[in-house]
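Input (structure):
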């Protein structure tokens, strides 16, 4: 079985996440797609207005329903800082005979060699890179060659371009007409119902 895993803070989940996940599923022929919200990501600080882990998990479940994906609460339940090497080790134990892909965007891909225990990450899963736009293609291709030469890894490029959506912009202006289109209605309603994020609704 082919399984794709898309991690992230999902703060909030948006159409960019869903587009990347669907593009990887279609191009790689994935049988299952798993969205994986992190508890505390090691690469960035969580904004002060971030909903708690339980709320981000619930929003991720709403997002997954939009594309027929699954959600893993592994990192939420484990707590603490979410290191990808530890997480993929758990997935490998759960799915010992399946092929795993860890799906990343351009920015994450270009820093993979600096993550905690990168060779372990590469040993547990293939990497699927969803390009941000055409201007990234050359840089991503060069970095792919660098990783292939320096690590024992398998890397697939997903040709469908990622949607250039800023999670920071969404959090600060989630109810603006320009931003509403990037949020599934179920998630927008959830945010509104629970009063998350700091902006006020505009008419």
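Output (sequence):
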């Amino acid at each position: 079985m082919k399984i794709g895993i898309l991690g992230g803070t999902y703060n909030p989940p948006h159409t960019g996440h869903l587009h990347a996940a669907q593009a990887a599923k279609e191009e790689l022929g994935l049988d299952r797609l798993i969205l994986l919200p992190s508890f505390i990501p090691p690469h960035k600080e969580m904004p002060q207005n971030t909903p708690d882990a339980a709320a981000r998990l619930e929003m991720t479940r709403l997002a997954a329903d939009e594309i027929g994906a699954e959600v893993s609460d592994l990192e939420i339940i484990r707590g603490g800082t979410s290191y990808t090497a530890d997480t993929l080790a758990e997935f490998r134990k759960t799915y010992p005979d399946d092929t795993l892909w860890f799906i990343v965007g351009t920015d994450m891909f270009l820093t993979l060699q600096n993550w905690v225990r990168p060779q372990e990450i590469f040993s547990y899963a293939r990497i699927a890179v969803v390009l941000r736009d055409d201007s990234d293609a050359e840089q991503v291709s060069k970095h792919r060659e660098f990783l292939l030469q320096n690590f024992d890894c398998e890397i697939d490029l997903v040709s469908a371009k990622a949607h250039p959506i800023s999670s920071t912009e969404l959090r600060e202006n989630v109810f603006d007409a320009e931003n509403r289109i990037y949020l599934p209605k179920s998630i927008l309603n959830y945010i509104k119902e629970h009063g998350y994020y700091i902006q006020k609704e505009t008419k």
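Notes: The chain is about 45% helix and 15% strand. The CA atoms of residues 59 and 187 lie 6 Å apart.
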